From TrEMBL:
It holds the Pfam family CbiQ. One of its GO terms (biological process) is cobalt ion transport. The lineage of its organism: Bacteria, Bacillati, Actinomycetota, Actinomycetes, Geodermatophilales. PANTHER family: COBALT TRANSPORT PROTEIN CBIQ. The keyword Lipid metabolism does not apply. This is Cobalt ECF transporter T component CbiQ. The gene is cbiQ. InterPro entries: ABC/ECF_trnsptr_transmembrane, Cobalt_transport_CbiQ, ECF_CbiQ.
Length: 248
């Protein structure tokens, strides 16, 4: 267990042994379909497909997938609200507010579900070597790797300080909870920054000036999976254009 629910789900996923390139192709194809196809039925089909694959063949826990959707859903709701407010000529709703908000929510939720399909089935330790093989700049991959490692430093500090505050009745009342939350945020940030600095100094002292090279696990690509991916994406495009054209 890593402490991150999405990462834990990726390690326990039934698709863990599949090639990250195959899963990336599927997720990228679904994202493109969500962005380029009409909301009805394109985005609906993409969202349903991503959720069905995650909860079905990939065996991602429904609770984990649902919790991962909550925060993006909040941002989508705020974005949809701001997109339908018209300020010119006096505040009010835009004439096509419902259509505009529906399109934004549909595209965003479908694309988000497709990205979560990749995140909940592919650990970061598989994605980073795949990015290197795709010739992504080394600096970008290294920043992603360091950020990923620092997440666990942050979580460990948060858990330790939170336990200490609870043992001292720091959350027994609302007033104490507000005060403890402020102290917690400040302590976690400073402690994480200090640990990150000491980690950097230690690596520099050992002559670590380039990225950390490890022997990645090679996961073979599946022709059947790729064929099913192309077939499924083609079916989504055909159905979306057919139904969308008939509705128009």
């Amino acid at each position: 267990m890593t402490g991150l629910a999405v990462d834990d789900a990726a390690w326990a996923s039934a698709w863990r042994s599949r090639s990250p390139g195959d899963k990336a192709l599927l997720s990228l194809g679904l994202v493109l379909c969500a962005l380029l196809l009409p909301v009805w039925p394109g985005s609906v089909l993409v969202g349903l497909t991503a959720v069905a694959l995650a909860l079905g063949p990939a065996r991602v826990p429904a609770r984990t997938f649902g919790r991962a959707v909550r925060l993006p859903l909040a941002f989508v709701a705020v974005g949809a609200l701001t997109s339908v407010v018209q300020l010119g000529g006096g505040p009010g709703w835009a004439p096509d507010a419902a259509q505009r908000a529906g399109a934004l929510v549909g595209h965003a939720l479908a694309g988000g579900a497709a990205v979560l399909l990749l995140a909940t089935t592919t650990p970061m330790s598989d994605l980073l070597p795949a990015l290197r093989r795709l010739r992504v700049p080394a600096a970008v991959v290294e920043v992603a790797s360091v950020t990923y490692r620092l997440l666990f430093v942050l979580l460990e500090s948060l858990h330790t300080i939170r336990e200490a505050q609870t043992a001292r009745m720091g959350h027994s009342t609302v007033r104490r909870s507000f005060r403890s939350s402020g102290v917690l945020a400040a302590a976690v940030l400073t402690r994480s920054w200090d640990r990150a600095r000491r980690l950097q100094d230690g690596l520099a002292g050992r002559g670590m000036v380039d990225g950390l090279r490890v022997l990645p696990e090679v996961l073979p690509s599946s022709r059947r999976f790729l064929a099913a991916t192309v077939t499924g994406l083609t079916a989504i495009v055909v159905v979306s254009l057919t139904v969308g054209g008939a509705a128009g």
